[in-house]
């Protein structure tokens, strides 16, 4: 499993798994399917609007509608939708992957446009995607040529093993559990999801990056609750805060 690390403005390093070439290929295939469905709908709309027109009017309207409803969406789908959704086309959204800068920042239109321009080389000239699969499968950051030129990477942002809100709510509200930290009630469900997912990542990937993030999160949690110092057992502390929150709010 290849990963990439980003350092936040608070000097906390966060690690993400890089999207595999297979994930990226499936996402692209899904995008093609969505485009085909769109073109079928657009074709039906065009035919309905050309009904009962004379030949000259039909030709003029056909040209205009073809440009705006077919050609432009075909050419500009990728950069426009990725720009509007912060690096996620419909296919990428389903596969849980996203385009970001190599620095971890959100990419801009220039990066998305550069990636799109080099699709001609990566996909169409390079044997219908073979070159893109070959390059992304062999480079250190799993970048195709378009990614290298745009200085972007594709990361996985959806982990099938990540906990959701239902997992937080499913923690047993034990009658004999006495909350250790009553101030845990000040947090939100989103805060608890962050704690829960951090615990999970440390358990699954006990590398130094994830441990350092958990320690930083424990310090910040203790600070927000007004504790004079962070308990020495950081992971146990985070688990206790999570349990206390559920017992106090449910």
UniProtKB/TrEMBL annotation:
<feature type="domain" description="RDD">
    <location>
        <begin position="19"/>
        <end position="150"/>
    </location>
</feature>
<feature type="transmembrane region" description="Helical">
    <location>
        <begin position="116"/>
        <end position="135"/>
    </location>
</feature>
<protein>
    <submittedName>
        <fullName>RDD domain containing protein</fullName>
    </submittedName>
</protein>
<keyword id="KW-0472">Membrane</keyword>
<dbReference type="InterPro" id="IPR010432">
    <property type="entry name" value="RDD"/>
</dbReference>
<keyword id="KW-0812">Transmembrane</keyword>
<keyword id="KW-1133">Transmembrane helix</keyword>
<feature type="transmembrane region" description="Helical">
    <location>
        <begin position="25"/>
        <end position="50"/>
    </location>
</feature>
<dbReference type="GO" id="GO:0016020">
    <property type="term" value="C:membrane"/>
</dbReference>
<feature type="transmembrane region" description="Helical">
    <location>
        <begin position="62"/>
        <end position="81"/>
    </location>
</feature>
<dbReference type="Pfam" id="PF06271">
    <property type="entry name" value="RDD"/>
</dbReference>
